[in-house]
Amino acid sequence: MTSAGKLTILLSVIGLVCGCEPPALTDNGVVGAFGSVGLGPGAFSYPRAIAAERDGSVFVIDKNGRVQRFNRDGEFESYWRMPDTDSGKPVGISIHPDGRIFVADTHYHRVMVFDRDGNELARFGREGRGDGEFNLPTDVAFDANGFIYVSEYGGNDRITKWTADFEFVKVIADSEIDGARVNRPASIAIDAAQTLWVADACNHRLLRLTLNGKHLLTVGKFGSGPSEMRYPYDLSISEDQTIMVCEYEGNRLQWFDETGQSIATWGRSGRELGELSGPWGATYGPGGLVYVVDAMNSRIQIVRR
Fold first, then answer.
1. Is residue 197 in some structural domain?
2. What's the pLDDT at 127?
3. CA 289, CA 277: separation in Å to the nearest integer?
4. How many helices, marked H, and strands, marked E, lie in the chain?
5. Is residue 13 part of a domain?
6. Residue 14 lies in a domain
7. Does pTM top 0.85 for this prediction?
8. Number of domains in the chain
9. Which domain range does residue 154 map to?
10. By the 8 A CB rule, do 282 and 290 touch?
11. CA distances from 235 to 21, 63, 176, 185 (A)
12. Coil/strand/helix, residue 98
């Protein structure tokens, strides 16, 4: 990156810190970016999972097995390492309404729970295909009644429901839905109506289900046009119930209303700000800003839609 480019990003971040609305760095809404290639604080080795407190910090996991915490402007705050990493690294992170951090510890077939400083609070699940077992968990979501939902792939390709005390309840979404079995549910989220949205990545579609797994809506097919998708790896729901989808191979974000109508897209393939290379995730964060995991560019882009 040129010195001028670095200065532009710095000025944008200063604008955010001062509480004023910074000018966009690009004509499509980028207001900042942070991160670089590396293993030190604030640098990334292929970032691929993100979650944000609505009015607080942003948490990013990379393939070095670290969970790094940043403030809303991308300034490094702290980090912790996952306890085991030899078999693989996590691909999912979610923040419970009470502030606990849930990590889908994918290659260890479990979910781990931390406080925001990285102190372990709990873990649940074990490898397997039966009740109370996981195979490659990808994401965690929470409903209004305290139940926990976990998505899996690699053979299970399903969603399981757990109590607030981590007791297994039931399996949902483990049979054919609208002509196909779920194939790598990469991300899940629950909206204000208490319905479950699933990013069914390898089927290039979204599913909307009841919390008991009844099919309500299918959105999308493979492609690059409106309402089409190329490997949706993440989704996030805004306070106004707009569904934002991050397309890994599509190198873009796409927004849908609750009826499944495509209403906007952002991004394209490339290395410049406003462009993406293999984005793994995106989340709404403080102030309604969007934080995008631009994985192959080893950075997080901050977007005001």
1. yes
2. 97
3. 20
4. 1, 24
5. no
6. no
7. yes
8. 1
9. 27-303
10. yes
11. 26, 20, 22, 11
12. coil
